[in-house]
Amino acid sequence: MLTKTKLLFLLAGVLIALAASRQALYPQTATAQTQSSGPAYTSAGDFKLPENYRQWVYLTTGFDMSYNTAMSMGHHMFDNVFVDPASYKAFVETGTWPDKTTLVLEARGAEGKGSINQKGNFQSEVMAIEVHVKDEARFPGKWAFFGVDDGKTGKMFPVGAECYKCHAAHAAVDTTFVQFYPTLLPIAKSKGTLSAAYQQESAASAKK
Amino acid sequence: MLTKTKLLFLLAGVLIALAASRQALYPQTATAQTQSSGPAYTSAGDFKLPENYRQWVYLTTGFDMSYNTAMSMGHHMFDNVFVDPASYKAFVETGTWPDKTTLVLEARGAEGKGSINQKGNFQSEVMAIEVHVKDEARFPGKWAFFGVDDGKTGKMFPVGAECYKCHAAHAAVDTTFVQFYPTLLPIAKSKGTLSAAYQQESAASAKK
Questions:
Q1: Is B121 on the interface with A (CB under 8 A)?
Q2: pLDDT digit string (tens) for A46-58?
Q3: Which of B56, B117, B118, B176 to mutate to test the interface with A (most CBs of A within 10 A)?
């Protein structure tokens, strides 16, 4: 007979197992866990770079692009872009970024000849990391940029910095350069989320 | 008092909850779920490209590298490399690849001027996809290469093809070019899994 006591024990078992399974399963889903908690900051307001950002969703890589601020030092550079998995999923569904979106731009040096490679370039050390975070309640302009110099935490760029103006004026979707993310641009087009400024620029450049 | 019956109900609760939580949690971990099933083939033996390979773990991007076979057409090219998440995790732990490892090389065209970019290159359409699969029971040499022309399935390159010889002779770890994967090379070094051929090449080139 299913007495009240037996039911209580059944319930206790369910709760114990749920708690245990969360601990047991989450290590397999480190990316999902990290992104669902959203961006984190130090008490001084610096951004804490998630250790596993390279296991987030990859968006693209540029080579010697002029918008890379670490570019003027006379050597070739790559920049790889990653986004937290939950925000990627939301973009695929909606064509734009949800609150708490975190984009990491990782600049790496470019090596030339090396091993069997005789031309072109492959990637070497990290030279700079910049982060673009959407945190609507925290930042007056909804988004903020951070420069992560030590690979761990990053200071926020002041709101008057050039990066804010350039992203606001030219970015294809919600201050982000989706025009350079080849898998996301078609989604933004089909969802109708391209910025007016970007659409005008595109139309003007198509007429040339 | 904790009777045998109560213990049984406790156990039943644990089992019910575990079963339920597996169903509830796994949809969040689509990449882990997909890769754990390993490589899949058509009845004709062609490789089936997983739809979500771009959500696997990103390894690196090359620019105009000479080992890219699609390179000789007079325009710039990127190649992005992804690996299934379970094999990435195994590599981080062991410094080498487990059975069922699947590496996807995605070659993309490189655009120059476009939007606000005035120099350097950003990525455009997929130009070619090549896959390197470790399937020990299936391939005499343990690994095989496939060319995916239609974005869905790929024919295996014949065992005598140049790619097999070059990878066997020069690759840093288990026929894979870990020397070009900046986050994995230090792991292979510390785990002592670098191939003898690669170590000799490195030593010879360091003496020059």
A1: yes
A2: 999 999 999 999 9
A3: B117
